[in-house]
Amino acid sequence: MTHQADGVRKGKDGRPRSPWALNDPLLTVYYDTEWGMPIRDERGLFERLSLEVFQSGLSWLTILRKRPNFRTAFADFDPDCVARFKATDLDRLMADPGIIRHRAKITATINNAQATIRLRASGGLVDLIWSYQPSTTPYPHTMAEVPTCSVESAALAARLRQEGFRFVGPTTMFALMEAIGMVDTHLVGSYRRGSSGLWGTSSPYS
């Protein structure tokens, strides 16, 4: 892939976006309306964390297509409900073709709901995750320049593991940070660059 092809591309509406957002209409809608926007409520963060767990090793498009089924199967990602899931729920989920039937990821999600509840005694999941927001963000011009992890994502992953969370490696946590706007990896030139309101649209060094 050339650097030009790796940079922003215009969709049919003429708006420049990161190229992955044009691979499917569902990805375009997600990119335009959700990706990179701050999420600061516990249920919302638990859902994004859980979906990133299931995405590990798969495409995000696969997860988006199954997200309505995930929400139904996991009680709309209410941590209190998921934390109470029993062996019968595990059997139900393993038999559900509408989600990713991966036993370790399913049990990790139940475990992570329980860990989320425990965190409430010390500030909660929202405060913990957002405390790892970096002081700067990448300013990639091409997809080749987009990082896959960072010092902060590694530290967040280590802290979450310390708190009992599973399937929360540095790469998965960086993807979460991108998804919730903690870092802005919209390519420079994308019309969505800076949409989170947390970062500027272009590099201060350019």
UniProtKB/TrEMBL annotation:
Pfam families found in the cross-reference section: Adenine_glyco (PF03352)
Keyword Metal-binding: yes
Keywords, alphabetical: Metal-binding, Zinc
InterPro entries cross-referenced by the UniProt entry: Adenine_glyco, DNA-3mA_glycosylase, DNA_glycosylase
GO biological processes: base-excision repair
Signal sequence, renumbered to the chain: none
Annotated protein name in UniProt: DNA-3-methyladenine glycosylase I
Ligand binding (Zn(2+)): 186
MF terms (GO), sorted A to Z: DNA-3-methyladenine glycosylase activity; metal ion binding
